[in-house]
Task: structure prediction
Amino acid sequence: MSEQYDIAVIGSGPAGSNAAITASGLGARVVVLDEQSYAGGQVWRAKSAAIAQAPNTPETLAGNTLRDTLTASNATHLADTRVWQIEREGKGWAIHILTAGKTIKVLSKALVLATGAREYVHPIPGWTTPGVIGLAGATALFKQELTLPGKATVVSGTGPLVFFVASEIRRLGGTVAAIATPNTRRDWARALPAMLARLDLMRRGAIWMADLILARVPIYWGHAASAVQGHTEVSAVSISKLDATGAPVGNARDIQADSLCMGNGLIPAIEAAQLAGVSIKHRPELGGWVPNVETDGSTDIEGLFICGDGAGIRGVAAAEIHGILTGQTAASYLGKVAVGTQSSIRQKYSKAARFGMAMTALSVPKAGYENLSTPDTIICRCESLTQQSVAKEIASGAQSANAVKSGLRAGMGPCGGKFCQTAIAALVARTNGGSVAEVPPPTPRPPLRPVPTAALAGDFDYDDLPIPKPAPL
Result:
């Protein structure tokens, strides 16, 4: 069974939804595929039915507007749908999906990837303890369920997200035991010129900071969470001062808490782009490895377009506009003509991207940050691999992320390497005395996401196999 469309869009966040809305408005037959039940992505995640009557936040309102617009468009939205394989079929694309427990194939003449980003959490001793959650994961709990990570939480991480999470914990009635951020006041001062382009977001950030300061929440600038105390649950979080290289110095300070929210910025989700054949390059100012994408969303693969954070971390405002640009480009590829030009949209995109990249710059990792991991620190959660075991594999000759994956299965678990490969690449680079730009991510293989074997088997029934009678003795 297969469905035929002009354009398939993978991802229904701000970028993907706007690409679909734009292209369908130009007359293209568009399908949007997404794992989530509702459009909006991570940043505009929809509230669950249990909290539907809760007061709306700016993110909820923006997400509701996007969801209403997508619903009113001519685009087909397939929610709760998992894309697990992408391949060429003729001059178009075949996208293999899992939906309602069955695998089907979607065919399209053009493909738009709007796969967004994933969070990077740098491994520290005890980071796998129950009660530790990523900053982005915490925002999902807030937006969808109004759930707190714990009663007393240490919040540690880079960029504005650390202050948003801390402010939301307080808004929802929780206690912030402390904030630790590797960024310094000087780092934020350097970002100020770009921040002036979004005075609305600056005002919102000022409100977060005012609330935290008035509540006397301790803020440790130039610090990071360096260890988690406790076995089956968090009992305390150690925070350490960082030197100019990002390495911990001096004695750590223990903060009593029952939970920790931590994160070290976002990384573009490029696995689908790699699988489709797009070339990649390392750009730390955009979050690390990114596909080669033009401003209009076009790539070096005919009929393939990429938009949003999956093309580099530039922020939600830029992702929205990039989706519109890419929707126009994809529609134009099919002969659909947009009224007017893209010049004014490109200018808006450039302005929004400057602000977003200034925020991304606050999360560019420093070399010394790797010293927060100890030899016994778990690097690969799925396979319970420590830094020491990975280091031994590298010393034995594994000089790439692919080689480490082959030797230790690092990246072959349920997460597909999303939690470990960044740290492993950094370890390979440090061991070889090189740069992470010299250690590309592993080669992606289908399935992009876990798929039940029963779904792949389809209607096949082993009971239907003809079984011959035993041979006579």
Residues 24 and 74 are 6 Å apart (CA to CA). The first helix runs from residue 14 to 25. The radius of gyration is 23 Å.
